Amino acid sequence: MGERKKSVLLILGPTAVGKTEVGAWVAERVGGEVISADARAVYQGLEIGTARPPGELLARVPHHLIGILDPTESYDAARFRADCERLVGEIHARGRRAVVVGGSTLYVRALTRGLFPGPPAHPRLRARLARLSPEELRGRLQEVDPQAAARIHPHDRVRLIRALEVYLLTGKPMSAHWGREEGFPWPLVKVGLTLPRAELHRRIRARVEAMFAAGLVEEARRLWQAGLPPQAPAAHTIGYQELFSYFRGEISLEEAKERIVRNTKAYARRQLAFFRAEAGVTWLKVGGLSPEEVGKKVLEVWAKSDPTVAQEDVPW
Length: 316
Fold this sequence. Notes:
Rossmann fold, six-stranded parallel beta sheet, globular
């Protein structure tokens, strides 16, 4: 029998549940490194609006896939999967452990359920599709791939666009590719963090207030004044899209803030619904616990699934 592959820890959950602090604590404890699975944290200039880990945390614990791209660049789940595989290999080669932390549903699915060997992203085609409303996208998808249209949430623009992109580039519906996904090369230990709804909503509002106090409006204005293209990821990111409406004079600043809170709560609901459908996740209720207390529970789950964590890495 060959040597057992090191497992990779995957910490998932809704926005504002505390994944960043817990992931960093666990990585520091085992001498590990964090790989961000946040579809927006990968961009430069979105530090406040994406709740990027503070500088002191980044200085203490190595983090990857944070602030590496211009906000106009395209980045998708397939590219994330390739980057994640490369990074895990490099981390393991250094004798360290990999901790993946994030809540971007498509990125998590790229690891847990795999990706089919479909065509790479086509920026010009995506730009054209991005001009359509969710209703128009879903209507077109129902015509060419009713199975995918039935599975994808009506307002999930990213997945609707990808499904149409696959059909237009290959001539085959995305659903025809299902079942051909390539699995992740390392065992994944999946841990989900949850909070009571009232507490999660309180944290979301507090986070938005903290973002405004930290200069979110000024950060968004810099992107706005830089002439960010309409199809750029930041233009469709919660926190920025609402403030862009404010800059256009369509809503007040207070209304923009309330929309950010409301849209973030809705996003958290979608994340939870998505992650609840994931198999093999150990869910931890983290209400009233500190990051260290949650981190200890996460480590217990990881070590139970992979005893080498306790034997080799964790200084119990």
